[in-house]
Design goal:
With about 800 residues, the protein is of the alpha/beta class. Helices cover about 40% and strands about 15% of the residues.
C-alpha cells in the first residue's frame, strides 16, 4: 500500500511498486456512515498513527442509497457520498493520512449497485426509462429477450400483487408506488389516463415481491432484489465504474483497494488483471477460501481479506476435548450435528427457492432432450434440467471454480453431483460438456457465478444458524465440521502464508463476522468446560427454552459469550438468526407468534433472578480465560505473516455480534485517554477496562511498523505444560536472524487446573543480542556462550498471558 520510509516509520513506496511491495504494515478498518463521516475519520487519524497503524482502511465511500448505514449499496460510482462529506472531505483525509505516514485503503463494490430507489441511481433510472436503447443497458445483466424488466416491489396478499396496482399514480411525470418513483418512457402517458395504462406501456413491469426469486429478469446480488449486478467485465463499464477510484490513485490519494465479493464477478481473474494494470497499489480481495484452497496463482493481488487466517488462529485456541460433550448436548436437544448434511439441505433450499430465477436462466441454455426413444414432455424436461443445474450448484466443495485456469474443483463437483443423482447424469454431463467446450461462454459464467451464491446463502446464511453445536466455529470462512485447529496445522498454514502470500490481509473481526473476536475467544474458553456448560444448558432450557432447538443452543451460547448484554441487543440478534435459519420463521414468511416469543426471551431470562445468577456465574468464570484467549489470538494475528487488520474499536474488549450490532459507535475518547496513559509508561493489568489489549495492539503494531518482520519459524516448548504454549519467531526484513518472537497461552483453564507452567520452558532462536519483552519492558537472561536463550514460561508470562519478544 503505500510509500518508502518516512520519519514516522510507516511503509511509504512509490506508485511503481507491485501490489505486494506496496502493502502497508497493518490496516485499521473504519465503518463510515451518516454518524461517522470522512471528517470524523480524519479527526481520528492522529490516534491511529499513535496506535501504530500503517494504513486507514475505509468502508465504501461512493454515493450510496439514501439512508445507507454501510455503503455497500452504491447508487452512483462517479462521486463520493455527499452524506460522508463529498470529495473535499475524502481528499482532506488522504492528505492528513499521508502527512502522518499512513496509507489509505478503500473498499470498493464492483459487483452490484442499489436499485431500491430508482430515482437515486441515474444509470438504472435511464434503463427503466429507455429499456434496451438506454446507453446504460449494457451496464446491467438484463435478459431483455424475456420482455419488460420485472421489478418485484408490489405488496402481495395472495393475489399476485394485482390489487397493489390500484395504488399506482402518476405524479410529476413519474409513475409512483408509495415511496418509490419510476420513470415514464417518452410518450407513454396521456394526461388523465389511468396510471395502470401507463404502467403497461413501460420497459419494466412492477410485480409482486414474491416473484423475485423465481422470475427475475436481471441478475442480483444473492437474493437481494434491490441490488442489481453490474457487468464490469465489459471494458466500457469497468472504465465508467472505476474512473473516480482510479482518479484518486492518479492524484496520489489512494494506496490500496479491498475488492468486495470478487466471486460474484463474471470473470474475477480478468477483472483483477485489468484492475492491477490500472491501479498501482496494494490489492486484496474478499474471497472465502475453503481449508487447503489457494487463490488462483494468476490473480495479480496480494491475497484475501483474511477469513482463512481467522479460522486458523481462532481454532488454535479451541479445546478439541470439548467436542464430545457439546455434540451430545446438541443431539439430545434435537439440533443437527452432521454439519455436512445440514449444509447440503440448506444449499438445496437456496438453489430451489431463493435462487430459482438464476437456476432457470442457466437451464434455459441447455439442450432440451436426451437421446431417448421416448421424448420427455417439455415441462418434465425443463424441470429435470433445472434439477441438474441445482444439484451441480450444490455440489461444490469451494465457493466457485475458475475455468479454464483451474478445473479440479469443477471436476469434483460434477462427479459428486452425478454420484448423488445418477438419474440426472445425462443433464449433468451435458452441462459439463457445454462448459468445458466453452469455459468462457455464458453457461460456464453463470454456473460459476451462481455456485458462490448457493454456497454463501446455503452455508453461511442458513446452515451456520441451524447446526449450532458450537457457534464459535460458525464463522465466515469457518468449518463447523472441524472442531479445533491443531497448533501444528496453524504453523504450517502460517509458514505457507509467509512464503506464498506474505502481504495478504489477516483478520479476526470484520463488518461481516457473525460474532467478534472477543466473543469467540470466550467461547473458546467455554470449550474447555463443555461438560459443565452442557449441564447448565439442560437446566436453563428446562426453565426458559427458546421456541426452536437450534436457536435455543445459539441463544445460551450467545448470552454467555457476549455477557453482559442487554435484552434489546440480544433480541435483535436472535430474531435475525431465526430468520436466517428459516426453521421457525423467515424473512419472507415471518411467523409473528414465533418471533414474539423470541423477542420476549432475553427479558424473561434476565428477569428470572435465579437463572440470571447462574448465567452470570458461568460468564464470570470465563472472563479471565476469555481475556487470555483474546490476547493470545490477537498477538498471533498481529505478528504472524500477512498484513493484519484491526476492526474499529477492537483494540479494547469488544463483544459485538453480527451486523448491524458491530457497527455501533466507537468511544474514541475512552481509547485516546487509555492510550495516553500507556504512552506515559503505564503497563495496564488484564482487567475489564481492556487496556491490556490496547497495550498489546499498540506494541504489536509498533513492532510491525519498525521491524516489518518476515519469514516464520515455529517454536516448541518443553515440559509438562508444553501444549499450552503457542510460539513462533520471525525475521526482520533484511536481517539474517530471527529477532521477533511471540508466545501465547492456549487452553488457560486446563493450564490452571494442571498447576500452571511449572518448569515448562521455551528455547528462543540462537544468535547474538539480548531479548526484551516489549509488553513488560523486562530483559530476558542473556544468552549462553553458544548463543542459546532458554526462557522459563512461568516467569515470562507471570504478568500477561502473552509475550512480544524483540532481540535488539
Amino acid at each position: 500500500m503505500t510509500r518508502g520510509r518516512d520519519g514516522h516509520g510507516s511503509s511509504v513506496k512509490s506508485t511503481d511498486d507491485t501490489s505486494a511491495d506496496t502493502a502497508p504494515t497493518s490496516t485499521y478498518r473504519l465503518q463510515l456512515g451518516p454518524g461517522f463521516t470522512l471528517s470524523d475519520a480524519t479527526d481520528q487519524l492522529d490516534y491511529l498513527h499513535r496506535l501504530g497503524v500503517g494504513a486507514v482502511y475505509l468502508s465504501p465511500v461512493l454515493a450510496a442509497a439514501p439512508g445507507s448505514s454501510h455503503g455497500y449499496d452504491v447508487v452512483d460510482p462517479t462521486r463520493v457520498a455527499p452524506v460522508l462529506g463529498g470529495d473535499t472531505a475524502r481528499a482532506a483525509l488522504a492528505d492528513k493520512a499521508h502527512g502522518l505516514g499512513l496509507g489509505v485503503v478503500a473498499d470498493i463494490v464492483p459487483n452490484h449497485v442499489s436499485v431500491a430507489q430508482p430515482a437515486a441511481n441515474p444509470w438504472w433510472w435511464d434503463v427503466l426509462e429507455h429499456g434496451r436503447a438506454s446507453v446504460f443497458a449494457r451496464c446491467f445483466d438484463i435478459d431483455f429477450d424475456r420482455g419488460p424488466i420485472l421489478v418485484p416491489v408490489l405488496a402481495d396478499d395472495g393475489d399476485g400483487g394485482r390489487a397493489a396496482l390500484d395504488d399506482l399514480t402518476v405524479t410529476d411525470g413519474c409513475l409512483v408506488y408509495h415511496d418509490k418513483r419510476y420513470p415514464l418512457a417518452p410518450g407513454t402517458h396521456e394526461p388523465g389516463a389511468p396510471a395502470q395504462r401507463a404502467h403497461e406501456r413501460q420497459h419494466y413491469r412492477l410485480v409482486s415481491w414474491r416473484r423475485g426469486d423465481s422470475e427475475l429478469t436481471y441478475r442480483r446480488f444473492f437474493d437481494v432484489n434491490e441490488l442489481a449486478a453490474v457487468r464490469v467485465e465489459e471494458p466500457g463499464v469497468f472504465d465508467a465504474t472505476h474512473a473516480e477510484i482510479l482518479r484518486w490513485a492518479g492524484l496520489g490519494q489512494l494506496d490500496g483497494l479491498r475488492v468486495d465479493h470478487v466471486d460474484g464477478l463474471t470473470d474475477p481473474g480478468g477483472y483483477l488483471r485489468r484492475l492491477a494494470e490500472r491501479f498501482p497499489g496494494w490489492i486484496v480481495v474478499e474471497k472465502i477460501l475453503a481449508p487447503e484452497e489457494d487463490l488462483p496463482p494468476s490473480w495479480p493481488v496480494a491475497g484475501t481479506t483474511g477469513y482463512d487466517a481467522l479460522r486458523e488462529v481462532c481454532g488454535a485456541f479451541t479445546d478439541p476435548g470439548g467436542e464430545p460433550a457439546l455434540t451430545a448436548l446438541a443431539r439430545e436437544q434435537g439440533v443437527e450435528t452432521d454439519t455436512g448434511a445440514a449444509d447440503d439441505r440448506a444449499r438445496h433450499q437456496a438453489a430451489a427457492e431463493l435462487l430459482r430465477a438464476e437456476v432457470r436462466r442457466i437451464a434455459a441454455l441447455l439442450p432440451a432432450q436426451p437421446p431417448a426413444t421416448t421424448p420427455r414432455p417439455s415441462a418434465m424436461a425443463d424441470r429435470q434440467r433445472e434439477d441438474a443445474v441445482a444439484e451441480l450448484l450444490c455440489a461444490f466443495d469451494v465457493y466457485r471454480s475458475y475455468l479454464p485456469e483451474q478445473d479440479e474443483a469443477w471436476t469434483r463437483a460434477v462427479r459428486r453431483a452425478i454420484d448423488r443423482r445418477p438419474d440426472l447424469a445425462f443433464d449433468l454431463e451435458v452441462i459439463d460438456r457445454r462448459v468445458r467446450a466453452d469455459p468462457r461462454g455464458e453457461a460456464a459464467r453463470r454456473v460459476q457465478q451462481t455456485s458462490g451464491m448457493v454456497v454463501a446463502m446455503g452455508t453461511e446464511n442458513t446452515a451456520f444458524y441451524r447446526a449450532t453445536r458450537f457457534v464459535a466455529l460458525n464463522e465466515v470462512g469457518g468449518d463447523p465440521g472441524r472442531f479445533a485447529v491443531d497448533p501444528a496445522d496453524l504453523h504450517t498454514a502460517a509458514a505457507r502464508r509467509a512464503a506464498a502470500r506474505p502481504r495478504t490481509m489477516t483478520t479476526l473481526s470484520t463488518h461481516d463476522t457473525k460474532r467478534s473476536e472477543d466473543v469467540r475467544a470466550r467461547l473458546a474458553a467455554l470449550s474447555e468446560v463443555a461438560e459443565d456448560f452442557a449441564d447448565a444448558v439442560r437446566r436453563w432450557t428446562e426453565r426458559r427454552p427458546l421456541p426452536e432447538p437450534a436457536l435455543n443452543l445459539l441463544g445460551w451460547q450467545t448470552l454467555v459469550g457476549a455477557w453482559p448484554i442487554g435484552p434489546d441487543r440480544l433480541a435483535e440478534y436472535l430474531l435475525k438468526a431465526a430468520r436466517e435459519a428459516r426453521l421457525g420463521t423467515s424473512w419472507t414468511e415471518p411467523d409473528t407468534g414465533f418471533e414474539e416469543r423470541v423477542r420476549d426471551w432475553p427479558g424473561q431470562v434476565l428477569a428470572d433472578t435465579d437463572l440470571r445468577a447462574e448465567v452470570a456465574a458461568m460468564a464470570e468464570s470465563l472472563l479471565r480465560p476469555g481475556w487470555s484467549n483474546s490476547l493470545g489470538q490477537k498477538a498471533v494475528q498481529l505478528l504472524g505473516p500477512g498484513v493484519p487488520d484491526v476492526y474499529q474499536g477492537t483494540e479494547l474488549w469488544d463483544l459485538s455480534l453480527v451486523d448491524p450490532d458491530n457497527r455501533r459507535p466507537v468511544d474514541w475518547a475512552a481509547r485516546t485517554t487509555l492510550l495516553e496513559r500507556i504512552e506515559a509508561g503505564w503497563r495496564p493489568p488484564v482487567d475489564a477496562t481492556g487496556a491490556a489489549k490496547l497495550h498489546l495492539v499498540r506494541t504489536c503494531l509498533g513492532v510491525r511498523r519498525d521491524l516489518d518482520p518476515e519469514g516464520y519459524l515455529p517454536l516448541g516448548a518443553t515440559g509438562t505444560a508444553a501444549r499450552h504454549a503457542l510460539a513462533f519467531a520471525r525475521t526482520s526484513r533484511g536481517a539474517a536472524r530471527p529477532d521477533v518472537a511471540v508466545v501465547a497461552t492456549r487452553l488457560p483453564i486446563a493450564l490452571s487446573e494442571g498447576g500452571g507452567w511449572g518448569e515448562t520452558s521455551l528455547a528462543l532462536p540462537s544468535g547474538p543480542g539480548a531479548w526484551t519483552d516489549r509488553l513488560t519492558g523486562r530483559a530476558l537472561a542473556p544468552a549462553t556462550a553458544d548463543g542459546l536463550t532458554q526462557v522459563d514460561l512461568a516467569d515470562l508470562l507471570d504478568r500477561y498471558p502473552v509475550a512480544v519478544l524483540v532481540r535488539e
